[in-house]
């Protein structure tokens, strides 16, 4: 199975900061990398698909980049509603696999 | 609008089976795979498998191959996930989520989740 490794596992940042989360795949997954945001008690919500395409309705402060094995999710200016856990997911190989999550907390 | 509405919470004893439903609306049911993803308390997301509502074909994660069955009813646009031989480690929230059959690779709409508790 493809292993997806996110870093960091958690981070603390103030509102307005630029935040970057990385995701590394154990082998190349082309651009089949997606990012989800999950808030407590809620289902995950798709933010970015195909490594860099912004899902409809998602604020433009979210962006994604990368291909092959190394990917990045960037929040350009952290907002109060962005405090959540973020997961990467590869959709290239079966079984689909997720990163372990990155919890973003208020500083 | 697209909606995936799941059945309610379940409490089961070890060794029993559970069947969770996911009713789709607001789109053409047969043009999207339906996946199942679970999340144990305080843990990450785990992919279980998917079903093609058009023909009913399934793909399961190796871990669940001998215990999971995914089915669909096209007349009601509902998919089902049955997990048998339940153990305490199966306590989790189970989500259904759709993937476009042609342009997919990602899950763009999710159900609200169904908590399954396995306890003696």
Rg over alpha carbons of chain A: 13 Å
* Straight-line N-to-C gap of chain B: 40 Å
Fraction in helix of chain A: under 10%
Mean pLDDT of chain A: 97
**What is the gyration radius of chain B calculated from CA atoms?**
14 Å
- Total helical segments of chain B: 0
* Oligomeric state of shown chains: heterodimer
What can be said about this structure in brief?
The complex is a heterodimer of chains A (107) and B (120). Chain A is mainly β. Chain A contains no helices and 11 strands.
Could you characterize what this model shows?
- Chain A contains no helices and 11 strands.
- The model of chain A has no long low-confidence stretch (mean pLDDT 97).
- In chain A, the strands form 2 sheets. In chain A, strands 2, 4, 5, 6, 9, 10 and 11 form a 7-stranded mixed β-sheet that branches. Chain A has a 4-stranded antiparallel β-sheet with strand order 1-3-8-7, with no helix packed on it.
- With 107 residues, chain A is mainly beta.
- With 120 residues, chain B is an all-beta fold.
- Chain B starts with a strand and ends with a strand.
What tags apply to this protein structure?
heterodimer, A: 107 residues, mainly beta, 4-stranded antiparallel β-sheet, globular, B: 120 residues, 7-stranded mixed β-sheet, 11 strands, 50% strand
Blueprint (SSEs and pairs):
The complex is a heterodimer of chains A (about 110) and B (about 120).
Chain A: E1 4-7, E2 10-13, E3 19-25, E4 33-38, E5 45-49, E6 53-54, E7 62-67, E8 70-75, E9 85-90, E10 97-98, E11 102-106
Parallel strand pairs in A: 2-11
Antiparallel strand pairs in A: 1-3, 3-8, 4-5, 4-9, 5-6, 7-8, 9-10, 9-11
Chain B: E1 3-6, E2 10-12, E3 18-25, E4 32-39, E5 46-51, E6 58-60, E7 68-73, E8 78-83, E9 92-100, E10 109-110, E11 114-118
Parallel strand pairs in B: 2-11
Antiparallel strand pairs in B: 1-3, 3-8, 4-5, 4-9, 5-6, 7-8, 9-10, 9-11
């Amino acid at each position: 199975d493809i292993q997806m490794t996110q870093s960091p596992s958690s981070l603390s940042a103030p509102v307005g900061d630029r935040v970057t989360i990385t995701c590394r795949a154990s082998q190349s997954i082309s651009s089949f990398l997606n990012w989800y945001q999950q808030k407590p008690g809620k289902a995950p919500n798709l933010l970015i698909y195909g490594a860099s395409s912004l899902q409809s309705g998602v604020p433009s402060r979210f962006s994604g980049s990368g291909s092959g094995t190394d990917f990045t999710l960037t929040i350009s200016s952290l907002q109060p509603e962005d405090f959540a856990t973020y997961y990467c997911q590869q959709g290239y190989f079966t079984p689909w696999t997720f990163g372990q999550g990155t919890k973003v907390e208020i500083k | 609008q697209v909606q995936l509405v799941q059945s309610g919470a379940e409490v089961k004893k070890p060794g029993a089976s559970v069947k969770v439903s996911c009713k789709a609306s607001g789109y053409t049911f047969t043009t999207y795979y339906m996946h199942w993803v679970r999340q144990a308390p305080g843990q990450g997301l785990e992919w279980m498998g998917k079903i093609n509502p058009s023909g009913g074909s399934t793909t399961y994660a190796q871990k669940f191959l001998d215990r999971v069955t995914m089915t669909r009813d096209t007349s009601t646009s509902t998919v089902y996930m049955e997990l048998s031989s339940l153990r305490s480690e199966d306590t989790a929230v189970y989500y259904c989520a759709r993937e476009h059959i042609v342009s997919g690779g990602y899950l763009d709409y999710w159900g609200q989740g169904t908590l399954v508790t396995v306890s003696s």
